[in-house]
Amino acid sequence: MVALTPGYITTSVALTLAQQLEQTISLGIFFVGATLAALSLLAWRRERDRRMVVVAIGYLMFAIYGFVVFLEYYLLPYLSVRTVELLEHGVAALILVGLLAFFVALSRD
Questions:
Q1: Is 87 a domain residue?
Q2: Which domain does 84 fall in, by range?
Q3: What domain count does the chain have?
């Protein structure tokens, strides 16, 4: 357990069950997206197919989204609610970009 000492910053965030569920799922999206992006980059290095880079970028967009949503409640003490909500909802555009990246990868020949 961490003791309160001068110069050590502690932050405690009390979350409801719904918020905890959002946090857990977002962290899972981050880990799965980052893992799949890394595996796609390894496949690209082996095969040198440009589509694998596009797929890796798509997975990376999902990972970034998951990370930002995971950090939402931890950013509230430092940023205004408006800024955090704008960031969270704005980063949802990354899901659209990721889906478009998958479409581009599948439609290229």
A1: yes
A2: 17-107
A3: 1
